[in-house]
Structure prediction request, 264 residues.
Amino acid sequence: MIPIDDMPLCRDGNVLILAYDHGLEHGPVDFRDVPESANPERTFEAATHPAVTSIAVQKGIAEAYYPSYEDDVDLLAKLNGTSNLWMGEPDSAVNWSVDHAADVGASSVGFTLYGGSNNEVEMAEEFRDAQEAARDHGLPVVMWSYPRGQGLKNDTDPDTIAYAARQALELGADVAKVKHPGSQAGMEQAVRMAGKTKVVMSGGSKTTDRAFLESVKQTIDAGGSGLAVGRNVWQREDPTRILDALEAVIFEEASVDAALDAAE
Ligand code: FBP
Prediction:
């Protein structure tokens, strides 16, 4: 655990990561409804919004696009990731080293752990290597803590999400990115289990402005530290409008109604 409140990943202790690794994780299907969203520059432009603390991308996108935005955008290097073209127990390839991520300009790193997968042990060992290398560089570590695999019946059950948050603490993550467990009480349990590790909500598939903002508000009210979101921002025709509302909820303690009014 390192103090991260004054690092670029945080604003006033909270976090809003704009995730854009879906072209790898899900493929072009995620860009179908808003075809312009396939252009990484559109999401880098969105990441210049003051609400966004960091953009999370894979190595190829970082190398190709980050140099044009390095003065205006903070980079989180998502170190592992994989396509969904193959079948089998959840796993993720480590695609770049922390050394290389630091060379490209990352100020933090992200790593997925599929707790509960038959590949959990290997993934935890890969996380160890990445976490210790990040410590050598003084970089914060965000764990995408996503229990899934053949042993899990419900990957958003509150006890499962609390376990995911705890795994992040135990393994040395500074921030745990977890799925919303369906209630504020569930998120409170996750925050309690995470101890000093900050908990942020994972955005999920696109929903209405109100439903999405209410889940973010629940996370903040539960003691969570913000959000890591992709589709609920860049799958919208106007990413700026929802970022205005997120800024109000995450950094200005606004209600959902006030945030929606402010974003009109
Ligand atoms: P979303 O807000 O779009 O859910 O993005 C968060 C994220 O963790 C991305 O970084 C990642 O590509 C995606 O979700 C993975 O989603 P899943 O593994 O649940 O299909």
